[in-house]
Write a structure and sequence with these properties.
The protein is an alpha/beta fold. The protein folds into 4 domains: 154 residues, no CATH class; 109 residues, no CATH class; 146 residues, no CATH class; 77 residues. The chain has 7 helices and 39 strands. The strands form 6 sheets. It has a 24-stranded mixed beta sheet that branches. A hairpin with a 5-residue loop joins strand 10 and strand 11. The longest helix has 37 residues. The N terminus is likely disordered.
Amino acid sequence: MKGFKILSLTEFVSARHSQTPGYAKSRVEVRLKMSGRNGYFQLINKDDGLYLKIVDAELGGQPVIFDEINRYLSDVKIYDYDKIAVGRALGTIKDIIEVKLTPTLITPQNERFIFDISENRLYVQGRFYPPMNKGTLLSKEDIVQTLTQAGIKYGIDEAAINLFIKDRKYCTDYILAKGAQAVQGKDAVITYHFNTDLSHKPRTNEDGSVDFHHLDTISHCRKGDLLATLVPADPGIPGTDVFGNTIRPNRVVNRVLRHGNNIHVSEDGLQMFSDVDGHVALTDDRVFVSDTYNIPADVGASTGDVDYDGNVLVKGNVLTGYTVKARGDIEVLGVVEGAYLEAGGQIVLRRGMQGMNKGILKANSNIVSKFIENAEVIAGGYVSTESIMHSNVSALGDIIVGGKRGFVSGCKLKSGTMISVKTAGSDMGSATLLEVGIDPRISEEFRELEKELTIMAEEKEKLIQALNMLRKRITPGAPVSKEIREILKQVTQKNVQLEAQTKVKKSRYEALRAQMENNTSGVIKVQDTIHPGTKIVISNVTYYVKDAVQHSRFVRDRADIKIIPY
């Protein structure tokens, strides 16, 4: 080696790079392409002492900075020099200036270079310093050997090294080695060619009635229809750092087309097709196609109860006492009487339900009905109808009562989000409850816990009374009978169990109460009139309508319910 030294990043960090440990490739390359040179410095021995020659930058190059000079001098063990003179020279330099450092001469210095490695180990940056008094110049072999000895095995840029050897630009950054950055891959993507969003509500005709002829909530398909397309995952391309280590791209998500019966996938696994005419739905990332079970007349004595794995279409009525269950959607063209309907998807009643206080509608998704009377309705999505009378309706989504009539009376409506009606209650003061802002399931659980805790408190009181009576039967100092000891044991154990159960239920009760208190969302919209006797509940805040209110919205404002214009 020809007498040069390698400085580490901890030994040399100029002010220019102190904030950029992981420097960018583009910055360095732009610097190399500049027509001007950076300023640089050189030590010179003269008869009267050691001098520092400072050469000014040319045509926009970077000027010399004091920190770099100071660190270089420290490295060659020159500590006591005229720093003020150097600083003054840097402030007044034009072209070339020489500053006397010390009266003491030093041995000739060979050409030097330092290098540091970026934090991501993808770049090696070198910086060169001139020799003094005929010191030895670095060769290409010297530079390559030094890098190799430091463990740099990959991407040594001989062109950049040759560029320095040719031009000898000092105090200038050169990228001496470049790693290969990993090319990141892409997750697999599945595109479904049917409606997977079941939040669309029925359209409203110009006269205000609900359009049952154009429901966009059921996705029909034909045999041979393309249902889904898969773009496979791209694993990416590994990279290599300057030490020769492999850089792995980030992991990607692989996916496959998952499906049930009546579907086939292309040989390459990239396309999914329907094998039958029917309805298509997406459940838990799996596509299902069911050919609909068509019932041409009423569900009654001639059909018996219906339990079908797909969708069910009833072209007649569903009579009192009968059951229709479907894993998919249920659509009824006639009237549903006091029957039980349960759907894994949606329920659509084109005429409505006269439940006779026996009828139940239960759907994991939406429920759409012309009218609802004397029935129990539970929806995992929204409920849309033109009127509700003497019924209990619960929905995780919105409850919308619109169309020509749009009234509710003698009902309990519970929505997790919003209730919208034209008219609520009646002049007769029929009890009507409108509740929003909390999941109805949580609201029901909260009320059940209230009842259970009350009962458990009563049981606790009875146990305490029993214990007190038993203790009165015990004479101090006298032996306790086996019978009494056994009863005491049983009562005590039951008391301990009751306390443990009470603690669990009370904890859940308090959690639900906090959730209801903190939830201020939910709104009730009344397009026309809400009559006295109607009870409004938003989360856990209650308001009783005493006077008729028109064209209004009811919202929660902290611990109160505020009425604002519709």
